[in-house]
Amino acid sequence: MGAPEDEWQRGRYTGEQVAATLTHAIEIQQMEMSRAEWWEVTSVLPTGYKQEDDGKCLEDNCPINNVTWWEAITAANLLSEQRGLTPCYEPVKCTNDLGNGLTCEGVTEPEKSVYDCEGYRLGTRAEAEYATKAGTYSTWYSGSITVYDNLDCNFDENLDKIAWYCFNSDDRAHPRGKKERNAFGFYDLIGNVGEWLNEEGRTTAAVGGTDPKGAVDTSGERQLFGGLYNTRAWSACRTSDLFAAPWDFRGYRTGFRLYRTLFEDSVRSKAIVEQ
User: Fold this and answer.
1) Residue 275: is its pLDDT beyond 60?
2) Does domain 24-275 have CATH number 3.90.1580.10?
């Protein structure tokens, strides 16, 4: 995890390289959760959703956005229930319903690792970096960042191949899967909409180790991964970069994709792994 010391504009405190080991197999959505998928799972639009200001991407294949962290984990729970899996999250002290200003104060057993739950969930920082890098060590799976003598919104050949960012997005979200996928088969892990993660937000380097930071914990600051369609190549679009927002924040550039731990002793998991 992290970035090489000589990588241009690497975060001094957040980009330090550390070794991490994931001991579990993971099922991950190939693309960000789409508008059509969201509607199929939840049957309601996110609170305050307005077509005229939702990132200007209105097709069914556009990523769902304007969702809070609470709405994202609620969708994860609903999908788990629909597929006969035990939900990963049990929010507590909640007010209102999904689509009507849902917000909560926390989850039961915040110290429990989501690596151990059966259902769908948000990914951890370690899982997101692993999925995005797909065996590479460069800034992006498509290559290294271009060095400039300024911090403007500049064209980057390697980023342009794989992501919608400030230089090519026309300040809007785009339908999923239009850029080059990585070696694991994933699209849009970088750019387009930022993706909520399971972890607390913080401004330090990744901790590394075995199955790191699987707990939800109690902080209202949640990590967002992958940059946004209006961010610059050197900033939040960097694979190892880190930014965060309050778990009740909603914005035109925030979405998510779902993850799930696959257990070798689970009949359901074995079927997916064999396929």
Assistant:
1) no
2) yes
